[in-house]
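Sanity check

After download, print the first record. It should look like this:
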Amino acid sequence: MTLKPFLIAAVTALALPAAAQDVVRHRTPGSNFPIAMAVEVPAGRTTVMVSGMVPGVTNQSAPRNSLESFGDTRAQTASVLSRIEASLTSIGLGLKDVVRMQVFLVGDPGRGGRMDFDGFMAAYSERFGTQAQPNLPARSVMQVAGLVNPGWLVEIEVTAVRP
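Expected structure tokens:
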């Protein structure tokens, strides 16, 4: 019976260093592209998965559910990242806590049905890999056939880690 308090203390002592470790973000060697090659999340961290976010209407006078009502890929990406940031802030996190990002881009009819990766990257690079917010997530970007709303070109879901 006297062994039980000792075991509890030993297990607790072993768990403390793991909980105190930082998230490690591995850059791609020889590249300055603003994504992490890999991200290590230490034991004891809480993982938060944020559902896919879509853009808000930027032009109220445009036809409802049209590309004009939501803007181009850059504008939509900026809107989505703002919504993600607001969602994270509401639960005590921020963009700096994002460790994984999945991006779904619809082909832009004005670009022959090809996704506007440059437009996405322009807005993404304003929020990630900056001096103010240098933390980079592991990330995937894929072109999809469509999203629920015909005016949406962008949907992003993220995984964050609570420090």
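If your output differs, re-run the checksum step. Summary of this record's structure: The chain has four helices and six strands.
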